[in-house]
Amino acid sequence: MMALLYILNLLMLLILILIGIAFLTLFERKILGYIQNRKGPNKLLFKGIFQPFSDAMKLLSKEILFFNSDYLIYISSPMIMFFLSMLLWLIYPWMVNNFNNTILFILLILSMNVYPIMFIGWSSNNNYSMLGTMRIIAQMISFEISLFIMFFIIMMLIENYNISQLFKFEKIWFLLLIFPIYLILFINLLIELNRTPFDLIEGESELVSGFNVEYMSSLFTFIFLAEYGSILFTSFILTIMFFNFNVNSLFFMVFYMFHIYLIMMIRSVLPRIRYDQMMNMCWTDFLILSLTYMYYIYLMKEFNLIINN
């Protein structure tokens, strides 16, 4: 009986995430439209509310073509990418019972995200796709170092591997304690998501469409769902880690939507950064700052122990 309830919970969570992704695309197109002084989608039903489902039907009805690609890896890689993106949501509080290492689980899945992207670029047998893949692999691996250090800083603050322990600090916003780490983590997650201004894998003037240039129809849909599912999860994790609100509270939803809006709005106002500037930012700025903060928090913890003893 418990196993059946758990499977129903999983299905419900998956359906809600997919609906959320559908309306997230509409939300983004509306924001971009109003910022650029135009309406955005507004024809289908009331204010274009049916537009995401129309787009989905159009995408799924397209034909799939294969251009000298490695068939098995070409087909399976987008599915693996989507599966890993959905796997992150297993840490959602009402999905977790005795799962005490949720932060380590997040780091594990984030570190595996690079593999399906690598296989997507390699199996396509396309020069532009491979160039985009090489860029994103170097980008993700470089910034994962400082990203993991910042997660480790949070673990040091709560002295636990379980993300649900953050709810015990509801009256203390970690945002105020370690504000620079919040900004660095936000930028790091933008880079992990390949969002503007760090969408260097999709430099249209250089790489056509980046690592997914050979993908279409339902396979492109899996890549699209994985990317936008990661946006929802990124906003979720930022809100929990730095604002410590319970997920059932109104304040949590307000700050959650604020992070989603911020990610969408940045796309319309910032130009694409140069690749060498981004890598320099990783190795000379973010890494040094995150290590400094980690050492600072460690010293504060040790100093506190000495005083208490």
UniProtKB/TrEMBL annotation:
Assigned keywords, A-Z: Membrane, Mitochondrion, Mitochondrion inner membrane, NAD, Transmembrane, Transmembrane helix, Transport, Ubiquinone
Transmembrane portions of the chain: 6-27, 71-91, 103-124, 136-157, 172-191, 219-243, 249-270, 282-299
Reactions that this protein is recorded to catalyse: a ubiquinone + NADH + 5 H(+)(in) = a ubiquinol + NAD(+) + 4 H(+)(out)
GO cellular-component term (any): mitochondrial inner membrane
InterPro entries documented for this protein: NADH_UbQ_OxRdtase_su1/FPO, NADH_UbQ_OxRdtase_su1_CS
Primary role: Core subunit of the mitochondrial membrane respiratory chain NADH dehydrogenase (Complex I) that is believed to belong to the minimal assembly required for catalysis. Complex I functions in the transfer of electrons from NADH to the respiratory chain. The immediate electron acceptor for the enzyme is believed to be ubiquinone.
Family: Belongs to the complex I subunit 1 family.
Stored PANTHER family: NADH DEHYDROGENASE SUBUNIT 1, NADH-UBIQUINONE OXIDOREDUCTASE CHAIN 1
Protein name (database record): NADH-ubiquinone oxidoreductase chain 1
Native organism: Thyreus decorus
Gene that produces this protein: nad1
